[in-house]
Specification:
354 residues; alpha+beta
Length: 354
C-alpha cells in the first residue's frame, strides 16, 4: 500500500513538473535518462527549436545536437548519479540543417524526481538573452565564487566563504583545493573537472567541504573552465545543495525557483570564468573582501562593460549597481571607476610588482 501511495505521489509530482516546464518563460525542457527522450518543452523552447511541440515530443535530445556521442555519455553519467548537472557549449541542428551555437544546462531536479528525469535550459552564446524577466531574488543564491589555478590552488574567492565554512578568505586563498575537500569526494571532483574540460562547458555535483571546526559541510559545487587559460584552471561556484528532502507536490514552486536560480548560476559561473582578466586575490588582497555580487560587477567592469549593460545582464537596476560599486570603492580605498580599474588592470599590477 505504501508503495502504491509513493507511486501515486511520484506520478503527481511528475505531472506537476511537466506542467511547470510547459508554462515556463525560460527555454526549458524535461527529458528522460539515459535515453534523452523529450517529455515536455516550454513555448520559448519550441519557438527556439523551430519545431512544434508535438514533433519535439517524439524526439531525443541526442538527435538534436551536433555532438550526440558526448550528449549520450553525459546522460549516462547523470542517470548513474556521477553528475548532478552539466553545462556545455554545443550546437543545435534546426529542421533545415542549420547549426546554431547554444549553451545548454542539464540538471537532475535536486533529488525531487527519480534519477531517470532531468530538466534542461538552453541559452544563446551570451547566456542572457531572453532572461530579462528573472527576478532579483533568483540571483541571490548564497553562493561563493572563485577560481583555482592549474595546480588546484585557490587563488580567488569571495567573502561569502566566511558564512559557508566560517573561514575568512585570507586563510583559504593560496591553499590546495584538495585540503578542503573530503577525501572520498576528490574522485567526484576530478570527474566533474574532466567533464568540464573535455566538453568545454561545466559540471556540478555535491561535495563535502571542511569548515573551521573540522566538520564536513555538504555543498553544491559547479566548475567551469577558465576563459583563455592555456594551462588549465577552473572558475567555481559553491553553495548549499538544493532539495535535500524529497519534495511533495505542494513544493513545486520551490523547484520553479530552483530552475530560475540555475539560470542565474550559469550566468554567474560564466562571469567567474572571465576572471583571468583580473589579478588574483594573492596579488590584490582586497578582492577577497568582495561579495559574489560585487565580484560579478567588478569582473564585468574590468571586461569593459558599462553600468547600464551590467545592470541589464545581472537583472539589477542601475542604481543598485552603483550602490554596489560605492561599497567596492570603500573596500579598495578609491573614489572612482578609473582608480578602481587602475588597481585591477593586470598590466598595471604586473608593472608595479616587478
Amino acid at each position: 500500500m505504501a508503495t502504491d501511495a509513493q507511486t501515486d505521489s511520484g506520478a503527481a509530482y511528475e505531472r506537476a513538473l511537466q506542467n511547470l516546464v510547459r508554462n515556463s518563460p525560460l527555454r526549458i525542457f524535461m527529458l528522460s535518462l539515459p535515453d534523452s527522450r523529450l517529455l515536455e518543452v516550454s513555448d520559448p523552447m519550441a519557438e527556439f527549436s523551430q519545431r512544434p511541440r508535438s514533433e519535439l515530443l517524439t524526439l531525443r535530445l541526442i538527435d538534436l545536437v551536433a555532438e550526440p556521442d558526448l550528449a549520450r555519455h553525459s546522460m549516462a553519467q547523470l542517470a548513474e548519479g556521477k553528475l548532478d548537472s552539466y553545462t556545455r557549449q554545443s550546437r543545435y541542428v534546426t529542421p533545415s540543417g542549420e547549426s546554431l551555437p547554444i549553451t545548454v544546462r542539464i540538471t537532475a531536479p535536486m533529488n525531487q524526481c527519480p534519477r531517470t528525469r532531468a530538466v534542461g535550459l538552453v541559452f544563446d552564446p551570451e547566456m542572457d538573452d531572453g532572461y530579462d524577466d528573472l527576478p532579483e531574488v533568483a540571483s541571490q543564491v548564497g553562493r561563493v565564487l572563485g577560481t583555482v589555478d592549474n595546480e588546484w590552488r585557490i587563488d580567488r574567492i569571495t567573502s561569502e566563504v566566511s558564512g559557508l565554512l566560517d573561514i575568512p578568505p585570507s586563510e583559504i586563498i593560496g591553499s590546495s583545493t584538495f585540503s578542503v575537500v573530503h577525501p572520498e569526494d576528490i574522485s567526484a571532483l576530478l570527474i566533474m573537472a574532466g567533464h568540464a574540460t573535455a566538453h568545454t562547458g561545466g559540471a556540478s555535483g555535491r561535495i563535502r567541504l571542511r569548515n573551521a571546526a573540522d566538520e564536513w559541510v555538504m555543498c553544491r559545487l559547479s566548475l567551469l573552465p577558465l576563459a583563455g587559460e592555456e594551462l588549465g584552471g577552473f572558475a567555481f561556484s559553491v553553495g548549499p545543495p538544493d532539495g535535500e528532502r524529497p519534495a511533495p507536490i505542494g513544493r513545486i514552486r520551490e523547484l520553479e525557483e530552483s530552475l530560475r536560480r540555475i539560470a542565474s548560476e550559469i550566468t554567474a559561473s560564466g562571469v567567474a570564468a572571465m576572471a583571468t582578466a583580473m589579478p588574483t586575490a594573492l596579488e590584490v588582497p582586497e578582492l577577497g573582501s568582495l561579495t559574489s555580487r560585487e565580484y560579478e560587477i567588478v569582473v564585468r567592469l574590468v571586461g569593459g562593460e558599462r553600468v547600464p549593460a551590467i545592470a541589464r545582464r545581472l537583472f539589477l537596476s542601475e542604481s543598485t549597481v552603483r550602490n554596489h560599486l560605492t561599497t567596492v570603492y570603500r573596500k579598495f580605498g578609491v573614489s572612482s571607476q578609473g582608480e578602481l580599474l587602475a588597481r585591477l588592470r593586470p598590466s598595471e599590477h604586473t608593472a608595479g610588482a616587478t
